C-alpha cells in the first residue's frame, strides 16, 4: 500500500478490488483482515489513489458491520476526514454527499 503510487499501472485496480471485497464480504471476513483492508484503503486515500467520496460511501456502509472496534475506528476516521477536507474551504459537494450517506445510514 505504501508503494502503490510508485506502480500506478499495476495498482490501478487494486483499490477497487479492496472496496468490492469489503462491500461483498465485510461481515464474513476475519475482523483483523477487515481492519487491514480498511487501513490499506485509508493509506491509498491519503495518497490520492482513491476518491474520498467513494471511500466515505464504503465506510458508511461498513458502519452496519457487527465489529464494534471497526465501527469506532470508522466513525473517528469519517469525522476527521470530513473536518480535514473542509479545513481550508467548504467542499459543498462532499458535504451534501456525506449528508445523504448519513441520512441513509440512520434510516
How would you characterize this protein structure?
The chain has helices at 14-25, 31-46, 52-62, 68-85, 92-106. By secondary structure, it is mainly alpha-helical. It is built from five helices and no strands. The mean pLDDT is 87.
Summarize the structure.
The protein is mainly alpha-helical and 107 residues long.
Give descriptors for this structure.
107 residues, mainly alpha, 5 helices, globular
Cα end-to-end separation: 34 Å
- Count the DSSP helices: 5
Cα-based radius of gyration, to the nearest Å = 14 Å
Shape: globular
Structural class by sheet pairing and helices: mainly alpha
Low-confidence stretches: none
Quaternary structure of the protein: single chain
Average predicted confidence as pLDDT: 87
Order of helices and strands: HHHHH
According to DSSP, the number of beta strands is 0
Percent of residues in beta strands: under 5%
| Helix content class | 55-70%
Largest sheet: none
Amino acid at each position: 500500500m505504501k508503494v502503490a503510487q510508485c506502480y500506478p499501472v499495476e495498482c490501478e485496480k487494486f483499490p477497487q478490488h479492496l472496496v468490492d471485497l469489503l462491500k461483498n464480504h465485510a461481515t464474513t471476513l476475519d475482523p483483523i483482515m477487515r481492519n487491514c483492508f480498511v487501513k490499506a484503503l485509508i493509506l491509498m486515500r491519503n495518497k490520492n489513489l482513491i476518491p474520498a467520496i467513494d471511500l466515505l460511501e464504503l465506510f458508511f456502509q461498513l458502519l452496519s458491520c457487527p465489529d464494534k472496534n471497526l465501527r469506532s475506528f470508522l466513525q473517528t476516521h469519517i469525522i476527521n476526514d470530513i473536518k480535514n477536507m473542509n479545513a481550508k474551504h467548504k467542499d459543498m459537494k462532499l458535504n451534501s454527499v456525506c449528508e445523504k450517506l448519513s441520512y441513509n445510514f440512520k434510516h
